[in-house]
Amino acid sequence: MRHFIRAFTLVEILIAISLLGILTLLLSRLFNSAAITTSMSGKRMESEGQIRPLLDRMAIDFAQMAKRADLDFYGKGTADGGAMTGNDRIAFFSMVPGDYPSTGSESPFSVIAYKVNSSLAAANAAVYTRFQRMARGLVMNGDSSAINDGPIAFAPVNISTVWTSVTSNATTDSKYEIAGPQVFRFEYYYLLTNGTFSTTPWDPSLAGHASPAGMRDVAAVVAAMATLDSRSRVLLTNPQVATISGTLIDYAPGSGPGWLLTQWQNALNTPTNASVQALPRSIIAGIRLYERHFYLAPTPQ
Amino acid sequence: MKRRGNWRDSFSLVELTLALGIAAVCLISVFGLLPVGLKSNHNAISQSASASIIAAVVADMRATPKAATTSTQYAVSFGTAKTIYFDNEGAIAASFGPTSRYRLDIEFPPNPTAGAATFAYLKVTWPAAASHASATGASEVFVAFDRN
Q1: Using alpha carbons only, what angle is made at residue A224 by residues B100 and B146, rounded to the nearest 5 degrees?
Q2: Closest alpha carbon within chain B to A59
Q3: Separation in Å, CA of B7 to nearest CA in chain A
Q4: A45 — contact with chain B (CB < 8 Å)?
Q5: Quick check: A150 pLDDT over 80?
Q6: Quick one: pLDDT at residue B143?
């Protein structure tokens, strides 16, 4: 009988297996929460990693802006720019290299423009609701047949009359490139040299100031952006992204920095739109908001 | 004799204990990697976040018009040392709170040359509650502004 006693009984094995099961369950939960943490921080790192070069690029573009009274600026509050509801557009001359035509003498100037594309055409599905940048290199000796490539257009010629694609989010132009595939909402306003915030790029309280005039009254352009990481993005259709974008309100004149992001965060935390409410919270939580001051070099007096 | 051979086939207590011991050592070394991975992940996020905090504050200070002495976004007064606390999402607070994760200290080293650049020294440390000496990580930058 001795050899029977030495072997395990069925009860012992059952207890051992159930203990093992409980331990495995605990460990798998540990692994699960670790995986959730790493995937959330991975999304965050991706957002941060992609927005940083974009913000740096924009900071250079704005700092090198060509500020002269006879050079046009297209943007919110200008005669041709208007109030701009929804995603904003901006275009200006800047001393940065651009996409030059194959012939001609390259000038140091480019037309820089930003927008979030809203073209619904099937061919543009890859750029719809994505942040685009145009850097159109201008040549010194452009001719009238290819005025889009330069030379630089002096007043009274406006940027919007030569480079018409800057005036609409829905227009596509092969010179626009995706600069921020994650950025789906772009809004900006101006910090004037008198320290106030405005949607008009000049200080109307000063006598005779009624046009950008080389952005002489603007100290900085303050841009707010909303991004969605690529792993959350693939779970949404382009129209769904556009719907989320639509619930993020426009900047209200006079509001200070931080106000816009607070409004956007509130809109995401407690969505009023039924189709945004129906989206998984994990996707909404992946939306990150950024606000950055882009300094303009002071205008020489 | 045949019966004796039968019970020899089953595992002995010593064998089982050894097997369990080896399995436990393997498991412990595998699970030991988990916190190491999480910690390095956490550190990478902190480094990346501190870089964007510094970039945002410097951009704000640089954009401050000459007429103003206080920056608009983070309310940094030129010439006055300041400490700001940031949470995970980049929201700011003037004093340490339960959600604070990063601590930013701004100092203005004097520049004796009149009419020269305004210096600023920015240092982000984390965790927010720790003093500079006991912080687990830090990133810092020295910048000069033209405020003339």
Answers
A1: 80
A2: B59
A3: 5
A4: yes
A5: no
A6: 93
Chain-chain contact of A195 with B67 (C-beta, under 8 angstroms): yes
pLDDT of amino acid B4:
52
Note down the domain range covering A86.
Answer: 42-295
Residue A128 in domain: yes
Instruction: Name the domain count of chain B.
Output: 1
Q: How far is CA B132 from CA A93, B126, B128, B140, in A?
A: 44, 9, 9, 12
> Which residues, numbered 118 to 147 in chain B, qualify as contacts with chain A under a Cβ-Cβ cut-off of 8 Å?
none
Nearest to A220 among B37, B44, B63 (CB): B63
Nearest CA in chain B to A288: B89
Residues 6+ apart with CB under 8 A from B134: none
Q: Residue A146 — very low, low, confident or very high, per pLDDT cuts 50/70/90?
A: low
User: Of B46, B62, B70, B101, which to mutate for an interface test with A (greatest number of A Cβ within 10 Å)?
Assistant: B62
Question: Residue B1: is its pLDDT beyond 50?
Answer: no
Q: Tokens 């005025």 map to which residue?
A: A147
CB–CB contact B72 A37 (8 Å): no
Here the ipTM equals: 0.78
**Averaged pLDDT, B9-14:** 79
Rounded-to-integer distance, Cα B43 and Cα B4, Å: 61
How close, in Å, is residue B84 to chain A by CA atoms? 15
- B6: confidence class by pLDDT, cuts 50, 70, 90: low
CB spacing of B48 vs A45 below 8 angstroms: yes
Asked if the structure places residue A157 within a domain, the reply is yes
Instruction: With respect to residue A33, please indicate whether it lies within any of the assigned structural domains.
Output: no
pLDDT digits over A55-80, tens only? 999 999 999 999 888 889 999 999 99
**Which residues numbered 226-255 in A keep a CB inside 8 Å of some CB on B?**
none
Domain count, chain A: 1
Tell me whether residue A255 is in a domain: yes
Mean pLDDT of B46-75: 90
Under an 8 A CB cutoff, do B72 and A257 touch? Answer: yes
pTM of the model: 0.84
Q: Which domain holds residue B108?
A: 2-145
Given this model, what pLDDT does residue A178 score?
Answer: 92
Interface touch A292/B34, C-beta < 8 Å = no
